[in-house]
Amino acid sequence: MNIPPVISLKNIVFGYRSGNVLDGLNMDVLKGDFVGLVGHNGTGKSTLLKIILGVLTPQNGTVKLFGTPIKKFKDWDKIGYIPQKAGLSVSHVPITVDEVMRMEKASDYEVDEALSSVDMLSYKHQLLRELSGGQQQRVFIARALVKNPELLILDEPTVGVDVKTQEKFYELMQKLNHDFHLTLLLVSHDLHTISHQVHCVMQLDKKTIPYETNTCNIIHTHHKNADHN
Amino acid sequence: MQITTNLFQYEFMIRAFWAGIIVAIIAPLIGSFLVVRRLSLIADALSHVALTGVALGLLLGINPLITTILTTVVTAFIIEEIRSNRQVSGESILAMILPGGLALALILISIANGFNTNLFTYLFGSITTVTNQDIWIIFVLAAFIISILLLFYRQFMYTSFDEESARTSGIPVRLINHLFMVLIALTVSVVMKVVGALLIGALMVIPVISAMQIMRGFKASMFVAIIIALLSVLVGLIASYYANLPAGATIVMVSILSFIVASFLKKNN
Ligand SMILES: Nc1ncnc2c1ncn2[C@@H]1O[C@H](COP(=O)(O)OP(=O)(O)OP(=O)(O)O)[C@@H](O)[C@H]1O
Ligand SMILES: [Mg+2]
Questions:
Q1: Bridge-partner residues for A10, per DSSP?
Q2: Separation between Cα atoms, residue B36 and residue B160, nearest integer Å
Q3: What parts of chain B have a pLDDT lower than 70?
Q4: Looking at the domain A7-84+150-220, which fold is it?
Q5: What mean pLDDT do residues A48-55 have?
Q6: CA distances from B72 to A35, A216, B49, B214 (A)
Q7: How far apart are CA B127 and CA B239, in angstroms?
Q8: How far apart are CA A134 and CA B9, in angstroms?
Q9: Closest by CA position to B237, among listed B209, B260, B203
Q10: Rounded CA separation B218/B157 (Å)
């Protein structure tokens, strides 16, 4: 039996009015992969995530999620997404951790379970804005986990987080990847740190490294295989 | 005791209280989501557009509430289109629509030949001239607004706080945003009757920001905001009756007083 890639991008071309950001990008993420997506500011990491999530539509190329073309994809419970700077926009509103969790359809039990998997259960009735950046991050991860997703997508989750918290964060990611068999796609600036954590790195900096020679073996070989078919 | 019997012996005052109570419930409900979205100004912008609707109604001889609802809903859709395409920041669109609505209203009034005293009551509210028919229309609209809000509470929450995650959670964000715009437009149309176009934003936002200072939790502050709005309307109406002042103005002043009290409470916590 052939399991389709969790994410499959073929020849993606995308530009804003200011010019092209992605120029013929290919990428496959397989089940169980832990993929790091790196690149300097403005190389199109967030843009690529938005294309994967169907928020933006590429001018050219195909996006498939779990083997289904993005236009027809309905199974959003399979995907958890944690946007860049997730917590910052709500600092002016007194919303509790529990209320953040309730944005997803979930029972009391599921909420508690997700919060304890990120060690945040004891903060359930705290205000989100009274938590530290790293703790807020965990809450948003918990909210994504409540759906029991198969794929977790995180946009720069460790920005502005101290080394200790960062270590704990990657521990959590390893746990999710190993114990819960989650496929992870993680955006980061920090090639050095991330390369010790992930299975493979996709460098999104076309000015330095073309897509074809990126260091992500799984993507690379798979891309070659796809050419054979 | 003598005083209260005097107040409620007039039917127009009883109607005023009913209208005030309904408005005090829906204004902070919708206002809470406006504050989350940093769109507090939208109520003010739409209320000025509502004036255009009123002028249009008076000009064409149609019930102004109908033309008001139509113009505010259409404008709300236009705002949402521009906002979601991010061509212009939400705040700047509102800064354009607010005077635009007022300007268009003035032009329509000039065409109709002169300032209609009727329109003046829409500027500052005319809660004491609320008719039985008005009460029914307000009641039905409020029931609609509250049912939609209850039915889609989770979707509204998610979309207001975190649009991108909401989308990846399978919520039809575009649809929800447009539905929300309809609710705002309807609320503005209804609230205008009570506090007037110039003071709508106040009743939708001030009780909410007062409550958010002292409460821990979004639902909890929504609940307290309704209580503050109810108090503002009741105290404001009574004050307006005995001091012979415009009701819209006294209602807003009481709600501002609640904000000051809330700030004080917060400081002492
Ligand atoms: N809404 C937009 N309209 C026009 N151009 C945009 C828009 N969003 C991003 N861009 C441009 O597209 C390019 C890629 O942006 P993107 O946000 O994807 O970068 P990024 O790799 O995530 O950067 P960062 O590391 O700073 O988060 C940038 O040059 C940016 O200026
Ligand atoms: Mg980015």
A1: A62
A2: 7
A3: 1-6, 86-87, 90, 113-119
A4: Rossmann fold (3.40.50)
A5: 90
A6: 48, 53, 6, 33
A7: 13
A8: 61
A9: B203
A10: 10
- State how far the alpha carbon of B135 is from the alpha carbons of B3, B11, B128, B249, B263, in Å: 25, 12, 12, 21, 34
Reported as a single tens digit per residue, the pLDDT across A65-118 is: 999 999 899 888 899 998 876 655 677 899 999 999 999 998 999 999 999 988
Residue A104 near chain B (CB below 8 Å) = yes
Three-state secondary-structure class, residue B68: helix
**CB atoms closer than 10 angstroms to residue B17:** 18
Residue pLDDT, tens place only, A128-184: 989 888 888 889 989 999 988 999 999 887 776 778 778 888 888 998 898 888 999
Does A16 contact ligand 1 (Cβ within 6 A)? Answer: yes
Residue A228: the pLDDT is 35
Please report the domains of chain B, with CATH numbers, ordered by start residue: 2-263 (1.10.3470.10)
The token pair that represents A126 in the structure block: 């705290």
> CB-based burial of residue A49 (10 Å sphere; 0-12 exposed, 13-18 middle, 19+ buried)?
buried
**Amino acid letter, B207:** P
Residue A94 DSSP SS3: coil
Beta bridge partners of A63: A9
A22 lines ligand 1 (CB under 6 A): no
Q: Residue B34's closest chain A neighbor by CA? A: A93
Query: Strands A79-82 and A151-155, how do they pair?
Result: parallel
CA of A155 to the centre of ligand 2 (A): 7
- The model's pTM is 0.84
Contact B232, B217 (CB under 8 A): no
**What's the rounded Cα separation, in Å, for the pair B201 and B252?**
10
- Of A102, A161, A163, nearest in space to A137 by CA: A161
- Say yes or no for a CB contact (<8 Å) between A89 and B162: yes
Taking CA A5 as the corner, what is the angle to CA A4 and CA A9, rounded to the nearest 5 degrees? Answer: 120
CA distance A82 to chain B (A): 7
Residue B12: closest CA among B172, B138, B131: B131
Write down the ipTM of this complex.
0.85
Q: Is the dihedral of CA B214, B220, B225, B231 positive or negative?
A: negative
Give the pLDDT of residue B115. Answer: 55
pLDDT of residue A41: 83
Helix axis angle for A163-179 and A133-145, nearest 10°, is 10
